[in-house]
UniProtKB/TrEMBL annotation:
Keyword Transmembrane helix: yes
Ranges annotated as biased composition (Low complexity): 17-33
InterPro entries xref list: TraB/PrgY/GumN_fam, TraB_bac, TraB_PrgY-like
Coiled coil: none
Stored CDD domains: TraB_PrgY-like
Extent of Basic and acidic residues compositional bias: 1-11
Full protein name: TraB/GumN family protein
Region (Disordered): 1-33
Domain of life: Bacteria
Amino acid sequence: MNQDDTSHQEASEEESGPLTATPTSLPATSGPLKTFTIGETRYTLLGTAHVSAESADDVRALLASGAFDAVAIELCDARHHSMSNPDAMGEQDLFQVFREGKAGMVAASLALGAFQQRIADQSGIQPGAEMRAAVEEASRLQLPLLLVDRDVGVTLKRIYRNVPWWQRFSLFSGLIGSVLSRQDVSKEDIEKLKEGDMLEATFSEFAAESEALYTPLIRERDRYMALRLAEEAPPGRYQHVLVVIGAGHLKGTGEHLEAPLPANPKVERESLEATPPPSKIWKALPWLITALVLTGFAIGFSRNTGLGWQLVLEWFLINGILSGGATIIALAHPITVIATFFAAPLTSLNPTIGAGFVAAGVELYMRKPKVRDFSSLRHDVTQLKGWWQNRVSRTLLVFILATVGSAIGTWVAGFRIAGALFGG
């Protein structure tokens, strides 16, 4: 989408709302429109409210006009699949999820889904109804459907990597706390959804004050959607493309379309999909802790055999009790609790496997989720108690709490060893 002069790309001049413009041939809409003509292709951006029946009606009216030969929407493959198959989350191979280290992302996605379900139950409107309308109308009219948003898992990972480490716990504890609250979703939160989307509404309290969060959450996605349009609907491929995006993305995505985009947008788009690797310090830290603990044992035995065994016993008990006790909080099976108690002291000295992985594996073996657990998962997690009652979500809790308990146990026992050796 390169631009040589202003005549190559121009926005329609007839305004239909703030910062928007639309041709008179299109039906009137409740949401803002902004149209660009680039080469032989026209792109009409519709700014929608994600909790609004009117936005869904806007989409249907625009597509019914017959003016468009392609539809682009603010969804990624994963969210589109989830919309088409609501039980997709529960059909994942849980053991594979744990083995690939995706338990945290799955738990966050479930929490976001719970937040969405609470809003739907309270407002009577399913968030994303306008996206569903676009999918249904595109299928009915046999129009190409273009998914232009970045994968939600990638966005969450880039948020996690982008914010300073000391803010991560408060960020995600705030996420989990807000979606598991028993209180009704506030009118303010629903209003935020009318300008942004589920991620923005959930993180808005943090994003307003954090450039590190705002960049991957909003600014990068504006750029990403413009790049995807350049890839999927370059000038000349279609005559008129309807782009359905949240009103909060209308200005940013439009500005990127107005400016010259790279001749090969795929390169930059893939860079926005990459997850920044953890720093070398964080990768080396588990091995360093293991070396320090084993060195502490060696020093203890070199001084006195009794002291050495005392340090080993304290390491074992502190790790085992804290990690195994954490699984009790998750109401894990008694065998899971016992297995975690014995595994945590050993896995804490082996960075290649975690106590949470062992705990979740045993829990899955002892309490294999049933069909009804998968089918009711989306509704069960809308209530705090549902996370413990559903075997799928409870296994996620077992994994997370065992991991956290083992991490705390490692630090507590490590300081205890240091104190015993060096004057505690």
